[in-house]
Amino acid sequence: MPFWLAIIIIIATIGGLSIAAFSMWIKFLEDQRQAGEATGELGKVITAQQEALEAAERRIQNLEAIVISHEWDAVQGEAAGLAGTAGSTAGTAGSVAGTAAGRVDPDLLDDEASDADRAAEIARRLRT
Q1: How many CB atoms lie within 10 A of CB 123?
Q2: Do residues 107 and 58 make contact, with C-beta atoms less than 8 angstroms apart?
Q3: How many CB atoms lie within 10 A of CB 117?
Q4: Which domain holds residue 6?
Q5: How many CB atoms lie under 10 A from the CB of residue 60?
Q6: Residue-level pLDDT, tens digit, the chain, 128 residues
Q7: For the chain, how many structural domains are there in total?
Q8: Exposed e or buried b for every residue in 72-99, given b needs 16+ CB within 10 A?
Q9: Can you tell me the distance from the alpha carbon of 43 to that of 50, in angstroms, rounded to the nearest whole number?
């Protein structure tokens, strides 16, 4: 009888360990599934943030293009106005005074260049 009792104890121990290992494996799979779902949600959030960032960059580029365009138009208009006044003899003083009145005195500007100043400088460089 002790032999059979030893076999039963060994089988019970192996069975108990097997059930414990199986339950731990099931818990591990559940944790992996939940982690996968969380990772998928984070991926969606990251994708949405990247799309928002790209949209903001496009808006900034459009605004920069508008600012540079206005500065470019102003520089082109100024150049055309000066070229037109140089060739005409009548009304030269009035035309030059009209273009000078719209200019900003550089002495009144701050030492640090603002974005508008930089855009104007870029427009002037493109013109030459």
Answers
A1: 19
A2: no
A3: 15
A4: 2-127
A5: 10
A6: 688 888 999 999 999 999 999 999 999 999 888 887 778 888 889 999 999 999 999 889 888 877 777 666 776 676 666 655 544 444 444 444 444 444 555 554 555 556 667 777 777 777 66
A7: 1
A8: beebeeeeeeeeebeeeeeeeeebeeeb
A9: 10
Dist. CA 25–CA 3, nearest whole Å: 33
**Can you read off the two tokens belonging to residue 63?**
């605004």
Query: Hey, how many other C-beta atoms are within 10 angstroms of the C-beta on 121?
Result: 13
The residue type found at 7 is: I
What type of residue is 33? R
Q: How far apart are CA 55 and CA 75, in angstroms?
A: 30
Structure tokens at 116: 């508008």
**Lookup: tokens for 108:** 């009144």
Distance CA(76)–CA(72), nearest Å, equals 6
Whole-structure pTM value = 0.37
How is residue 109 written in tokens?
Answer: 């500007």
User: How many residues are present in the chain?
Assistant: 128
| Biggest alpha carbon–alpha carbon distance for the chain | 132
